Amino acid sequence: MTEIEITPDTLPFHELIGLSVLVESSCDPTMTGLFGIILDESRNTFQIETKQGMKTVPKSGSVFVFTWVSENGRISAKINGKTMLSQPQNRIKNLKKSRK
């Protein structure tokens, strides 16, 4: 199986669990500024492990900055959570369909 490199353009179609994330803004002001690692994802939320413990952050109404390391160094991408409203497996299927 060929591994597809994560880029800012393809990030929404990849597995996000394990990536570092910053909640840049949120409709819930208590979530803004949270930083941690994504431990789980549902259709509507991310479970983020932070220094303050596990937090459930809604995708809708939030803007996230994801960070990961590639062979080109450290990369960050800002994503509106509204565009991520999908079950993870469905986002990945959509990438496969768009590449055909």
What can you see in these coordinates?
This protein has a six-stranded antiparallel beta sheet, with no helix packed on it. Strand 3 and strand 4 form a beta hairpin. It has one helix at residues 88-99, and strands at 20-26, 35-41, 45-50, 53-58, 62-70, 73-80. It is mainly beta and 100 residues long. It starts with 19 loop residues before the first strand and ends with a helix. It has a single domain, classed as SH3 type barrels. Helix content is 12%, strand content 43%. The mean pLDDT is 86. It contains one helix and six strands, in the order E-E-E-E-E-E-H. The radius of gyration is 13 Å and the shape is globular. The longest helix has 12 residues, at 88-99. Keywords: Cytoplasm, Endonuclease, Hydrolase, Nuclease, tRNA processing. Consists of a catalytic RNA component and at least 4-5 protein subunits.
SSE blueprint and pairings:
Elements: E1 20-26, E2 35-41, E3 45-50, E4 53-58, E5 62-70, E6 73-80, H1 88-99
Antiparallel strand pairs: 1-2, 1-5, 2-3, 3-4, 5-6
GO molecular function: ribonuclease P activity; RNA binding
InterPro entries: RNase_P/MRP_Rpp29_sf (IPR036980), RNP1 (IPR023538), Rof/RNase_P-like (IPR023534), Rpp29/RNP1 (IPR002730)
Enzyme class: hydrolase
CA radius of gyration:
13 Å
* Count of folded domains: 1
Oligomer: single chain
| Record field, number of beta strands | 6
- Low-confidence residue ranges: none
- Decide which structural class fits the backbone: mainly beta
> What is the helix content?
10-25%
What is the first-to-last residue Cα distance? 15 Å
Largest sheet: 6 strands, antiparallel
Strand content: 35-45%
Outline: globular
- CATH fourth-tier homologous superfamily: Ribonuclease P/MRP, subunit p29
* DSSP helical segment count: 1
Catalytic activity: Endonucleolytic cleavage of RNA, removing 5'-extranucleotides from tRNA precursor
Enzyme class: hydrolase
GO molecular function: ribonuclease P activity; RNA binding
Keywords: Cytoplasm, Endonuclease, Hydrolase, Nuclease, tRNA processing
